[in-house]
Write a structure and sequence with these properties.
Elements (H helix, E strand, L loop, with lengths): L3 E8 L3 H9 L1 H8 L1 E3 L8 E6 L8 E10 L3 E6 L16 E9 L5 E8 L6 H26 L4
Antiparallel strand pairs: 1-7, 2-3, 3-4, 4-5, 5-6, 6-7
Helix pairs in contact: 1-2, 2-3
Length: 151
């Protein structure tokens, strides 16, 4: 079983634009399909609810770890925590890192890495990995459409 998911996408938008799409909670809400309650603050919990069709009953709960301007945005969360009756708080969270690098053409290479799946309880580890692997593929397309102005 793999411990991490890693996705890359080259965006036409400059690093400053991609950074804003990632870290302005209103913009993040748009492309990620979540309604956040307020701004991202390192060391604090970000709350809200999912707006993606079929998942509207789910709450967003992530702890912001790092915000290194135009370079790194990271948070921890409980992957694929989709059972509204389950308490995931005792599980170790995974770490999600968005890394930004300028490209020679003036765009941005965006990398997302989610790591820590080996610590997820065995009974839901494979499904959480599978669903988040597909989810990150879709989210990379979503942020590309948003940041590149195609949305």
């Amino acid at each position: 079983m793999k411990d991490r998911i890693e996705k890359h996408i080259e965006l036409k938008a400059p690093v400053s634009r991609v950074w804003r799409a990632l870290t302005d909670y209103r913009e993040f809400s748009e492309w990620f399909r979540v309604k956040l309650d307020g701004p991202f603050v390192p060391g604090e919990v970000s709350t809200g609810h999912i707006t993606y069709a079929g998942y509207e009953h789910l709450k967003w709960n992530a702890t912001v770890k790092a915000m290194e301007p135009e370079r790194l945005f990271s948070f921890t969360w409980h992957p694929y925590a989709v059972d509204p009756d389950a308490d995931y708080s005792a599980e170790p969270p995974t770490l999600v890192e968005f890394k930004l690098e300028p490209t020679p053409a003036g765009g941005t290479l965006l990398t997302v890495v989610e790591s820590g799946f080996s610590k997820i309880p065995a009974g839901r580890r494979a499904e959480a990995f599978r669903m988040n692997d597909g989810g990150w593929a879709q989210q990379m397309e979503n942020i590309a459409a948003h940041a590149d102005g195609r949305a």
